[in-house]
Amino acid sequence: MMFGHELIVAHDLSGTDGLLLEIGSERGGGSTFILAMLAKAQGRPFVSVDIDINQTAKAMRLVVLAGKGEAMCCDGVKYVESLFVPIVAVYCDAFDIVGARTILRYGKGYEVRGQEFTEEACHSFYLNLAKAIIPNLVPDGVVCFDDTVNNKGQWQGKGAVAVPWLLENGFEILKSFTVDVTTCSGGVLLRHERL
Ligand SMILES: C[S@@+](CC[C@H](N)C(=O)[O-])C[C@H]1O[C@@H](n2cnc3c(N)ncnc32)[C@H](O)[C@@H]1O
Which of 5, 23, 32, 51 to probe ligand 1 with, by most ligand atoms within 8 A of CB? Predict the structure, then answer.
């Protein structure tokens, strides 16, 4: 596996109703089109959310092409907090990991939007996202983090704080993969143990 969204594609969600949600729209990984096609095949609603209007415009074209879903321009946490619908799966791939290369490539966008672009802000974004997802997650619903790896027992990357928090709050890891720990290239899929 190369991208976190592949964990959702490979996981059997058939028979479980609910919204498929992507936080962080297509930017080279192919996730929006693939998840929209998955939602279409499973006959469920799909929404892709991004804070950057240019990304949302791109995502809108992709959901039209797929013939399924909607694209929304909003902060991911605020969007999920505003939802009162059953959610079956969430692909968490928004706030970028902070590193020299990402600051160079994407830092300006965060600055223009007035978003603090620090490792702490990244980790608390995903923690708040996880907390916002839980009230609407259906039994057997799953949460997936991209760019998250376990390095010698330590969670690193986007889900560095959110994954341990979910594990302390009744979630279990269904599957994970690691491509490269040095770049946090990998992903993890979690489900609530008691749901
Ligand atoms: C890694 S890219 C998403 C890649 C995409 N999932 C793919 O596979 O191609 C991260 C995206 O998150 C968006 N983003 C950053 N902060 C965000 C926030 N607070 N809420 C929603 N989206 C955010 C960025 O604009 C960017 O488009």
Answer: 51
